[in-house]
């Protein structure tokens, strides 16, 4: 994956929620859950908590710009007390990267208070926002997440329960969403009917947990129960669980890029191990694009398991060609091209003794603009590699995403205007092979997939004026 944040494809967000029926404080658990989901968003984060036995509307929260460990210190967490909590890590795909747009969103309205955390993007947010504004709604952020929250608040005025209001809202919004909602006596999880965004359920003693990925359940000692069903509204109260599947449908379209790149290696999404999926992608590459080489290596981190799969299928030894410096800070501000290129060298260095005199297969998960992979190939050859055969564990990116993945417009994608042969020459590789789009279903265990960023076949009608 492109290592320079300017050239990196990013997820929208990660969400986490916990309701401890025994009354224990949940803020520390939300904190650890967000740490486990940090890979899904690094711009901002937040935690909102409430005491389900206290007065209604007693939600307290804290949000900030930066990483979870930067925003939350011990004294900050001590100020957050409640047995129901939700949290959010964010990377912006709609709405500016500002504190105003950080989540969870906390909304006070005539029927009470709710806090909402959202992963994904709506494709009809603009029309819904205009409709709400015409009837007097004032928006404080530029996110589609606030559109969802305001729709719920509006529907709640004529609904007997918040679940009914959420169901009415879910029937109107279109796009991708994994939601956790705190409505002071309830924790509610909602997943879009196509299953574009992941959401799962776990349990720890008397506490129920909702999270974008199963790795976050493990981080707080919770046992995975199941994935939230696409279209399901799952409610947790002091009486236990209840499920509304009235919006569930047969048609599904799980995001393939969760398995290619976004999700953590130790997560399982919709019954599919992320690690095993990446091994299968590497094996498929080896069969479709064999190479005469001495060593297979991967670009850290997500390219490494695919490289392992390539090695196992090809019989070519697997090796580590790069050292990744985990202590380099985020380098979003790099005003010159030279500084952007130097940032790659700060994060990765070549193990010269490993690659010198070797013919290499270099596996990465994608090529966006080609800048980073070209730098890595140059670094490998400067360290003595005889040849570098690049293998990519996804098909070429040709189309933008509208569902919460920050894939840029076509004109910014190198594969949309250049052939594989041209890209190979541009990046300085000795050969280049992409995963065949027909290998994607077997990679993801034959799940029904959204692969629109590769073939342009979107699972729903979309607005063409992408934000």
UniProtKB/TrEMBL annotation:
Cited PROSITE patterns: GATASE_TYPE_2
InterPro entries tied to this protein: GATase_2_dom, Ntn_hydrolases_N, PRTase-like, PRTase_dom, PurF, PurF_N
Catalytic reaction annotation: 5-phospho-beta-D-ribosylamine + L-glutamate + diphosphate = 5-phospho-alpha-D-ribose 1-diphosphate + L-glutamine + H2O
Source taxon at top rank: Bacteria
UniProt KW keywords: 4Fe-4S, Glutamine amidotransferase, Glycosyltransferase, Iron, Iron-sulfur, Magnesium, Metal-binding, Purine biosynthesis, Transferase
Family that this chain belongs to: In the C-terminal section; belongs to the purine/pyrimidine phosphoribosyltransferase family.
The protein's role, per its UniProt record: Catalyzes the formation of phosphoribosylamine from phosphoribosylpyrophosphate (PRPP) and glutamine.
Protein name in UniProt: Amidophosphoribosyltransferase
Native source species: Mordavella massiliensis
Gene name for this UniProt entry: purF
């Amino acid at each position: 994956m492109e290592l320079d944040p300017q050239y990196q494809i990013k997820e929208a967000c990660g969400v986490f929620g916990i309701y401890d029926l025994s009354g224990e404080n949940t803020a520390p658990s939300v904190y650890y859950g967000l740490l486990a989901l940090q890979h899904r968003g690094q711009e901002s984060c937040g935690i909102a908590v409430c005491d389900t036995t206290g007065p209604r509307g007693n939600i307290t929260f804290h949000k900030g710009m930066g990483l979870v460990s930067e925003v939350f210190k011990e004294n900050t967490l001590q100020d957050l007390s409640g047995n129901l909590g939700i949290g959010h890590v964010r990377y912006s795909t709609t709405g500016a990267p500002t504190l105003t747009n950080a989540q969870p969103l906390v909304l006070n309205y005539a029927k009470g208070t709710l806090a909402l955390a959202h992963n994904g993007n709506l494709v009809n947010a603009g029309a819904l926002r205009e409709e709400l504004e015409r009837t007097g709604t004032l928006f404080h952020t530029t996110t589609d997440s606030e559109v969802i929250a305001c729709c719920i608040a509006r529907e709640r005025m004529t609904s007997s329960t918040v679940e009914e209001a959420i169901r009415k809202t879910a029937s109107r919004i279109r796009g991708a969403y994994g939601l956790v909602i705190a409505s002071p006596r309830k924790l509610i999880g909602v997943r879009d009917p196509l299953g574009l965004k992941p959401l799962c359920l776990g349990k720890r003693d008397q506490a129920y947990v909702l999270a974008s990925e199963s790795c976050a359940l493990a981080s707080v000692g919770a046992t995975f129960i199941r994935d939230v069903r696409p279209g399901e509204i799952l409610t947790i109260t002091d009486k236990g669980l209840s499920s509304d599947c009235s919006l569930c449908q047969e048609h599904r379209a799980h995001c393939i890029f969760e398995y290619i790149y976004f999700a953590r290696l130790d997560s399982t999404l919709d019954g599919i191990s992320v690690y095993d999926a990446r091994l299968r992608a590497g094996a498929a590459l080896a069969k479709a694009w064999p190479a005469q080489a001495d060593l297979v290596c991967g670009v850290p981190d997500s390219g490494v398991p695919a490289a392992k799969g390539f090695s196992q299928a090809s019989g070519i030894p697997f090796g580590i060609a790069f050292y990744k410096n985990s202590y380099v800070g985020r380098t979003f501000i790099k005003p010159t091209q030279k500084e952007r290129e130097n940032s790659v060298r700060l994060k990765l260095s070549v193990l010269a003794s490993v690659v010198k005199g070797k013919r290499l297969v270099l596996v990465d998960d994608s090529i966006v603009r080609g800048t980073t992979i070209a730098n890595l190939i140059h670094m490998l050859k400067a360290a003595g590699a005889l040849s570098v055969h690049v293998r990519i564990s996804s098909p070429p990116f040709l189309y933008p995403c509208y569902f919460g993945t920050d894939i840029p417009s076509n004109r910014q994608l190198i594969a949309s205007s250049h052939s594989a042969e041209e890209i190979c020459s541009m990046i300085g590789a000795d050969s280049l092979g992409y995963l065949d789009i027909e290998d994607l279903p077997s990679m993801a265990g034959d799940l029904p997939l959204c692969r629109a960023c590769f073939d342009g076949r979107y699972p729903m009608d979309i607005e063409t004026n992408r934000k």
